[in-house]
Amino acid sequence: MAKIDIIGAGAAGMWQAFLLSRRGHKVTLYDPAGTPSQNCASGCAGGMLGSYCEGEPGHEEARDLGLEAMEIWKEHYPHLKLNGTLVVASPRDVADLQRFGAVTQGHTRVGVDEISALEPALEDRFRDGLFYKDEGHIEPFVALEYFIQEAAAAGAKLVAEAWEETDADVVVDCRGLAARDHLKTLRGVRGERVVVDCPGVTLSRPVRMTHPRIPFYIVPWSNNQFMIGTTAIESDDRGPATLRSVTEIMAAAYALIPALGEARIAFMDADVRPSFPDNAPRIIIGKTQSGRPRLYVNGLFRHGFLLSPILAKITADYIESGAKAPGVLLEDNGEW
Prior knowledge:
Residues 6-317 form the FAD dependent oxidoreductase domain. The chain is α/β, with parallel strands linked by helices.
């Protein structure tokens, strides 16, 4: 059994605390914003677990790691929704839908009748779509709360304070962009979202619509809420959502489901996703000031909730046996 300090209580830190405590380690989770933390990119997520949809060229690692992560989600999270993902396009953007289908896997092509059967709220407005039946979704803060409680039940200690070096055997650093004090190549990718209440609309799964400027999607949450998002802007700005972005997001939502025009806006917000230059996640093996191992789990880009379980497993396997995951778990060579 190792004594492990984890810094950061977002999706990555949450999964680390849960899995490591479940595997018998003595875990302490630190975050001055409290546990779970909403003062991070995880607090501004949609909750899509789209391993195939996220597997476009240049993101193959997200697809492959995501498929492994989905098995861990299925094993450990009883509230996981496994209803797939539906991707549609307006008539003028059908070429983008065809391109998306050509560069992703795990889907079947569906027509107007199948689309209407999957999601009656779309009626007969879309004649072509792609259905990714093996994808899923969760409600982010509900999941954060669940795994924090489970980690505590397994013996993890939750500390709402900044971390200072202790006698822990290993430190797992899940601070996101705050880790740029060591990981110099991290950059921010800003995402903005709108959450609405709309009792008159029902969706069973995330619905994506190809869009020329933003990766647009709607995710159904509980109590008739829908998360509508999101932008992907190269920026470190953590300020409130902008008028331009919100206008684009809401216009796309209205085009997808006109009944959302009667939705009430619950809130809108924005945050910044930590990303390496190639948008692939990494676990960088460094050291604390006292020379103990410090594992930087970072660069999850748009895939924080999707990939956190598999990164926690890779971390646990390394701590317990020294096992390494090529391309993901890397020694700190000063280039990061």
